[in-house]
Amino acid sequence: MWDRGQPVFPVTRATPIRRRGRPGRVLVCSASALFAVVVSACGSRSSGAASSSNPALVHLDVELEHARVASAPAPAAAREQRTWSFAEPRPEWRALSAATMPGLATVELEARPDCLRVALRVPDCGRGGMMVGGIAVDVPESPIDAWAGVRVRARSHARMSGIAAACNVETRAALPGAFAFFGGHGGTSPVFNDGSVQDYMLPLVARGRDEPGRPRTVHSIGLLASAPQAAEIEILSISLVPRGAPFLEPSGVRSLTRDSFTRRTIFAHAPASLAFRVRVPEAGRLDVGLSALAGEVVTYTVAVKSGSAAPQELAREVVTDAAQWHQRSFDLARWSGTEVELVLAAESETPGAVALWGAPIVSSKPAAAHVSERARGGAPRGATRPNVIFYVIDGGGADLMSVYGYNRRTTPFLERLAKEGVVFEQAHSNSTWTQPSTASFMTSLQHSVLGGLRRGIHSTPVPAKATTMAEHMHRAGYQTAVFTSNPNCARMIGLERGVDVMRDADTEDSSRSSPELHEWYWRFRRDYPGRPYWVHFQTTDVHEPNHPPSPFAGLFVGAADRERLEEWDNSLFQKSGDLFGTTSMVAFYDEALKRAKIDRHGYFNARRGLYDETMAHQDKELERLVDRLKAAGEWEDTLLVIGSDHGHPAGTFARWGRGLIEPQPEGWQGALFDSYSTRVPLIFVWPGKIAGDRRIAQPVSMIDVLPTILELTGLPMPEVMQGRSLAPLLLGRELEPRPVILDEFRVDEATGAMVGNIEMIDMRWGASLEIAPVAQGADGSRGRHAYPAGGRWGAVHPFFADTSRLLLYDLWNDPFATRAVNDEHPELVAHYTQTLTEHWLVHQALAQSFGEAADRPLDPEMLRQLQTLGYTR
User: What's the pLDDT score for residue 667?
Assistant: First the structure.
C-alpha cells in the first residue's frame, strides 16, 4: 500500500512550505503629507554591510558561499519517502474521533476525486473549547529516528487552529492537547484558510510514556487537526519523510532547533570539509554549537592552516547526542591579525551522515577589542557601533505603568531609567495582539502588507521579501539573538531568519519569564562574547495568565480576592466553554460573565490587580538586568529600546480595562486605537549619546523602531518601509509630526477577501475605517462589533453592516474610543474616509509586491486607481 513519492522540500520545522514566485515590482511614492512609503526593487538583498566588513566578527554561515567545500552526497535513503495519495480511496486510514476516544471531536470522512475531506464536528457530549480530531494509519514498525517527520499536502477554507502529526496514537496521551494548536506549541502548524494547496512539514512527535530501556519505535501515525468551530480540511497526500530529507543538498544553511534553541546552522554530509579564509581578529576565538541527526554519530575536527605551514588540528570531538547543541570555543589568539584557512571537518561511519555546525562565529574578545582601539588613539568600537537590546514587554500597556502616570507604582525603576533616556508619551503598536504587531515592527511594514491572517487564527509568516530587523543587523556584522517565552513572536511567523541563536519556548512560569530569559541572555554572552550584538527580548510576565511571584503577590490583590477569582475563572469556562473561539473575546467574556452570574467590577478589578503585580515584578527584573549590564561593563556601549507589542488586553483574553468603564460603551463602539489596547511604552536609552530626562508628546508608531535603530547604528535604511526614523527627535532635532496608521486584517473564509480595519491617529482625531466585503447570504443585520473583524477572534463572518463605514473619535476627550462623534463632524468623516481609502489602496499594492501573489502583476483597474491617486509613476 506504499507509494514512493518525490523528495520532500527541505523544511526543518512545523510550518507551511511557502510557494514563491518572481518578485513583483511596484513603485509607490507619497500622495500626501500624511503618508510616505519608500519602495524600489522589492525583493532585493539589503545593502547592509556583510559580516566580513567587521574585522572583529565573522559569521561563517555568511562566508559559506566563499568557502572551499567538500561534501559527500546525501544518502539515497534520504530520498525514499513513503507516500499515500488520496486521489484514490485509502480505506486503511481510520478516523480518530469521539466515537473511539472520549474528548475528541466527531470526525466525518468523505473521499473526493482528489482528496480525503476530514470534517470536525461538535461531539454529542458538547465541548469546552477547541476541538481536536483526525485520521490515523498503522505502519510497519520502525525506529522513530529513521524519520524526519510527516509531510502533508492539504487545502482548507476553514479557520482552523492548526494541524500536527503524532505516532502510536492508540491513547489520548499520544495526541497533542487543544491548547498546543492555539499557541503553536509541540510541533503544531497553522493552516492556510484561503483554499490554496499548501505543503506542511510536521515533526513526528512521540507523546506519552515510553517503556524504560526500549528503543522508541513507530507502529502508527496520525494527523490531527484542531478548530474553534466546525471545520473541514482536505488532505491530498501524506508522506513519511526519512531522516536526512531536509538536507538533500551537499551543503547549505538552515535554521535548526535543538533543546528549544534554534541556530543558523551550516550543514554538510560526512565526510565533509569546509575551508574558510578569515583574518583572525585580535585575541580571536571560534564559537560554535555541534550536533547531529538522531541515530547518527559524527566526529568533528577544527584545524588552522597558516601560510605554507601544515594544518594544525585544534580539537577532535565525537557527537552522539542529537537532542542538544554541544557548545564549544576554540582559541585562535596565536593567529591574531593574520589571514588563515580555518577548516571545519566531519567524519562518520554512516556515509552521508549530516554534520551540523550551529552559529559558527569568529570574534574578538571584547576587552582586547577595546584596548586595541584605545591604544591606537581611537574610540572604543562600541562607541560607533553599539550593542542593541530591544526589550519588548509583551502585553505591557502604557496606561498601566506609573512611568506614564498610572496611579499605582507599577514601574518605579522605569521612572528612574526615564531620567537617563527619552520617553515617547504617545507610542502605539500597530495591532492589538502579538503576531501582527511583532511582524510589523520587525519589518516596518503594516499587517495587511505582510499578508494578514491567512492561517486560521495565525498570521501569515513574514514574506521572504520583507527584510527583518534581525536580518539587517546580521548582515551588518552583528551577532543576533532572540529570547522569548511567546512563540507568537518568533518561529511561528518566520522571525528566526537572520538570528544566530533563538530560544522561543515556554518558561517554567510565564509570569516569571524575565529572569529565565535574562539568564539565557547571559549564557549567550558567555558562549558568544564578541561585539557588537543585537538581542531581542519578549517577556510574558504581564501577559495572562497572571501569577505574580513573591514579594509582589498581594501588593494589590488580597488572598481572599485571589481565591475568589480562581473560582470565578473555573466557573466562566465551565458555563461558557462552548463559546470559546466561536466569537470575539469581548463577546465571550460579556456572555460568560452573565451566564456565570459573576460581578463584572469585582472580576475585572481583581484581574487588573494581578496584572499590576506582575508588572511590578517585570520592572524589578528589568532593573536587575540593567544593573548587571553595568557591572559587566556593557552598559556604556549599549542602546536599550523598551517597547511593547500591544497594550491590554492581549488579543485573546479578558478586557478588564475597557470592562471597568462606566457606563459601558455600546457593543459596536471601539477601535484598534483604544488606548488600553494599543498605547504602549517606548523608551530609548543610550548613555552618553542620547540626552536623557526628556518626554516627547508627538504620536509615533512601533514600526518606527526599525528605521530608528538602523539610523542610530549607522546602517542603511530598508528599501521598503512604512515607518520612519525617530533619530532626529532623540538627538534633539525637529521632526514634522505625521499621523499614526494601525492596520489589522484577516482573510474572510466566506469571501476570500481581506476584512478588518485600517485606522489613523491624527493628533486629536482617531478614525477607524472598516474594510469588510459581506459574503452572499451573510447576516448583515448583526451590525458592527467592538472587536475588529481583523482580529484573531473576529467572528467567523464579520460583524459588519452591508456597507463599510468609518467611525470617528475625539481622542483628546475619549482616548478609549467609547463614543463616536460622526454626527458632530460629518466633514471629518468624509475627509478620513477618503484618506484611509487611499492608504488602503497603497497597502493592497504593497501586499502584491511582498506576499504570496508577488508573481502576479497588478490588475489594470488597480494600476489605474493608483495612477489617479498619484501613488505610482
Answer: 73
